[in-house]
Amino acid sequence: MSTEIHDEVVNLYNSNHVGVVAIKGVMGPEKLKQIQNSFVESVNYFYPLEYGDASRWDLSEEDFCKFPSLELVRMEFRRMTTEISLITKFNSVYKEKFSVLFYPEGSSGVKPHRDSEHSVNCVIIFIVSGDTMFITTSDASSKNVIEFSTHPGDIIIMRGPRSKRDILPRPIHSIGKVSKPRYVIICRHINHYLMDNDSGSSELLLLEPDTKSVVGDILFFHGHQVGVRVGAWETPRYLGPLLSHGYRVIVPSILGYGKTTGESDYCGPNTLQRVGDTVRDFITEPVHVMGASRGGTLAVLFAEHFPKLTRSCTAIAGTYDLELMVNETPDGKMRQNILDETGGTTYAYNFRNPRTLWEELNAPLHIVHGKKDEQIPVTQATEFCDFLVKNGLKPKLSILENENHKLFSKQTFSDVIVPFLEKS
User: Fold this and answer.
1) Which residue, 12, 296, 293, is CA-closest to 168?
2) Percentage above 70 pLDDT, the chain
3) What are the tens digits of pLDDT across the range 290-305?
4) 260 in Cβ contact with 201 (< 8 Å)
5) What pTM, to 2 d.p., does this model score?
6) CB-CB contact of 221 with 258 (8 Å)
7) What does DSSP say about strands 182-190 and 119-129: parallel, antiparallel, or unpaired?
8) 94-125 burial: b if 16+ Cβ within 10 Å, else e
9) Alpha carbon distance 4, 116 (integer Å)
């Protein structure tokens, strides 16, 4: 990376910087010609956007194989983000997203906006054809306008948040009127994924740590949500202590929550299959598996069904005998919900009871429960652990004397949950 680019990137993340830099002549004429030819061959891949008069092509792995010139852009993006990450201290290991935008001659461009909150670290835009103004402002009032005259071969770098706690604003930007047909390739890191497969859509959120390095990965399962089922999106407000300890947290929205389509079946076979299908692209080696409430139950079942992906398992305020829960709970709504989602059959209860596949629990297991839990009695935790001990396993049981169902305090994470992770 040249000294000029290095200095520009360093300034990009200063609090008094507008958050955009334009760098001239990064791509030469020969490479531009190769890329432009790819666009001519792929005109049917573009679809019109809902706003404005532009059209878009979201690149797939198959597209990179079919058009080698696009692979050159991807490699350049990876090279640049790796170097930028060393300067600006962000984690460059993120899911990537690549899109081509086409603006026809006479297009009115794009109105002022901020990029989606799912874009992180930085966005790099490769200008392939067309001359126009890239406009950015320091605030929503459109004062202090800065204009960049961009030409084929140039790139634009925009900053994004480097962690959950990064408060630098995303730049407000727009594109001026287009005088010649304009193609750009937008390359970004994203922390939110919506994947489609034969069984439906699955949502996943990736939470990066606040530290300079990642000490480990956690697969976290959220619990039941009354009212609006936002799925994974509830977790950033209480998983901060894990991020501050250096853990990266992978949070899928379980079946029937968030944007994950399908009927919820209370940690049943459909949930396990969907979760397994969703996380396989993100987990290539064993990770810490964790969950709370319904998610605590799911964490233990996941550890049994996917032992090769489980480094340790922490179950917080989970239910380990649904049939007993249905028969003993005074909460009529909870009872009916369990019956509705499971069907209330012996097979359904046995499938969701971690005692059924206890012999598959190979990873260290930590059961955490509040003694004053008002929703799930602490006996669910103690009796499950007694069963495991009688069968020769050694689960760690942490009963928090003065705690109820919600166990997300900083002290609980620091004193109870994180020390177990560090030893596992």
Assistant:
1) 12
2) 93
3) 999 999 999 999 999 9
4) yes
5) 0.68
6) no
7) antiparallel
8) bbebbebbbbeeebebbeeeebeebbbbbbbb
9) 29
What pLDDT sits at residue 140?
57
Only one residue has tokens 């009695």, namely 377
Q: Widest CA span of the chain, in angstroms?
A: 77
Write the pLDDT tens digit of every residue in 181-200. Answer: 899 999 988 777 777 777 78
**DSSP notation for 80-96:** HHHHHHHHHT-----EE
Query: Nearest 5°: phi and psi at 92?
Result: -85, 0
State phi, psi for 203 to the nearest 5 degrees. Answer: -110, 145
- Distance CA(96)–CA(188), nearest Å, equals 6
Which spans in 19-147 are helix H?
A: 29-41, 61-66, 68-88
Residue 142, pLDDT above cutoff 60: no
Pairing mode, strands 192-197 and 146-150: unpaired
* Contacts with 83 (C-beta within 8 Å, 6 or more apart), sequence order: 1
Closest by CA position to 251, among listed 287, 212, 198: 287
